Amino acid sequence: MNNDEDKNNRLISNRTNAIAPSGIRKFFDLLGSIDGVISLGVGEPDYSTPWHIREAAIYSMEKGYTMYTSNSGIPELRQRLAEELKNRYKLEYDWQSELLITVGVSEALDLTMRAVINPGDEVIMTDPAYVAYDASVILSGGIPVRVPTVEEKSFELDAAEVETRITKKTKAILLGYPSNPTGAVMPREKLVKIAEVARKHNVLMIVDEIYSHLVYGMGHTCMATLPDMQYNTILLSGFSKSYAMTGWRVGYAAASKDIIAAMTKIHQYTIMCAPTMAQVAAIEALKSGQDDVMEMVEDYNRRRLVMVNGLREIGLSCFEPKGAFYAFPSIKSSGMSSEEFAEKLLVEEKVAVVPGTAFGKCGEGYIRCCYATSLKEIKEALERMKRFLDRHKA
Amino acid sequence: MLKKILKILEEDSRIAPEQIATMLGISEDEVSSIIKKAEDDGKILKYKTLINWDKVNDEHVWALIEVQVSPQRDTGYDAIAEKIYRFPQARSVYLMSGAYDLAVLVMGKSMHEIADFVGQKLSPIEGVRAAATHFIMKRYKEDGVIMNGPEEVKRQPVIL
């Protein structure tokens, strides 16, 4: 470490320094310097938000809905959300005390950790997992405990493996299924077993179900619907992926009154409220966005099959992802590390993918390929990858 | 499965059966035979290309003609509609509810040509009571496609 770095690190809090810097920063810098890149590295839909949703937000601005909303979110949005959860999952949440509208799941996750974690508390999560899980726990003074999930077991989390990691310090189990980055979905019977472990050891379940609408050929099981789990679960979700609303930043948390009250306390001092126009847009999405979701899911499914088949055809082993919009093929046969593969692929063939290691040590040997991009680009990317693999055949 | 295939073809008729098979998780032969049958049944009528002629400096003129007719015993509007739609100049013909009866979309090389068609061919048809011609000045959107191109994708190239 040189002196400047040392000095800078002393200016920054220990807690922040404890978060590992992104291992792929170099990769990002490289990406910015190359033109004509086909990116499978994105993490959002390629749809713009459906027009009727955008129009509702524009109208609200014309009408002058430009002030703060209630800290917890616009009442109509919470009422409709409660209704949606009831219709979809038969879950009854009191809209006034058990729901909180947040700035995306990102904020909801941060609030959750800050609301429940004491220094030294442990949170069990998968490896690989979405990048913010680990960081949000560390920032709250907790300790992430990673449980490897493997391709051979469809990247599903095994309850027995979770149980062996439970200690007196275990506060929660954090799950993100359908999974970013693997696209894995947890079958109901496996979730039931995890719920049993959580209840037995009196550990909270925190679930990020942002991709719950994006499942293919199977239903989504919400953790909170399992026996006795509603109030032992902090359910986090939002509008970004289902309604193609990533830039609006609207998410929510549903949990027991006490937990929502604690989260709301932090939320009101740090955020005040989610953006008003974005909340109005979310109301419109709940009111009449169901057809949009179905259309998009059908379309993602078609592209999913093209991507997975294509990856297999060019010689990569690829587990069949049943959710989200990612494929997570193994690149072990290339003999390269994930980062090396991603970097060389970018430089030589101008295709951007995300090295699996960005999501944890167990992502080594894998890359994340997002298929929420046009068929034309998927096919072109696959051709370029084939050329790349042929050239680097060991 | 037929509807799923038709939806894909409606969006992109050049897509190969092999690709459709992958997208729907069925065999290529199955896709081909379903398409063949739909063509034979008249469910698929034609594979067309949507062109933005404005960009090709094409001089064609389009008009929407509102036609009022007196329906006839036994055939109603159908016989008169047929007399109109037999003309190749009539690109689309619809029976409408409301203030007029038939909407006829006409294409011609010039305004003059369309005026001649309306005055000499369409209006004299027995049973046609009146025809109001509206020339199309600009095409913004056709068949669900915005003419000046889809929205630009403004995504960040890599998001974790």
Overall strand count of chain A: 12
Q: How is the largest sheet of chain A built, in terms of strand order?
A: 2-8-7-6-5-3-4
Please describe the biggest sheet of chain B, giving its number of strands, its sense, and whether it closes into a barrel: 4 strands, antiparallel
- For the record, the count of structural domains of chain A works out to 2
Question: What does it look like?
Answer:
The complex is a heterodimer of chains A (394) and B (160). The two termini of chain A are 36 Å apart. Chain A has 14 helices and 12 strands. In chain A, strands 2-8-7-6-5-3-4 form a 7-stranded mixed β-sheet, sandwiched between helices. Chain A has 2 domains: 3-48 and 292-391, Aspartate Aminotransferase, domain 1 (Alpha-Beta Complex); 67-288, Type I PLP-dependent aspartate aminotransferase-like (Major domain) (Aspartate Aminotransferase, domain 2), CATH 3.40.640. With 394 residues, chain A is α/β, with parallel strands linked by helices. The mean pLDDT of chain A is 94. Chain B is an alpha+beta fold and 160 residues long. Chain B has 2 domains: 2-40, Arc Repressor Mutant, subunit A, CATH 1.10.10; 53-138, Lrp/AsnC effector binding domain/regulation of amino acid metabolism (RAM) domain (Alpha-Beta Plaits). Helices cover 32% and strands 21% of the residues of chain B. Chain B is built from 5 helices and 6 strands; from the N terminus they run αααβαββαβββ. The longest helix of chain B has 13 residues, at 28-40. Chain B is extended, with a radius of gyration of 21 Å. The relative contact order of chain B is 0.13. The chains are: A alpha/beta (394), B alpha+beta (160). Chains A and B meet through helix 3 and helix 12 of A and helix 2 of B.
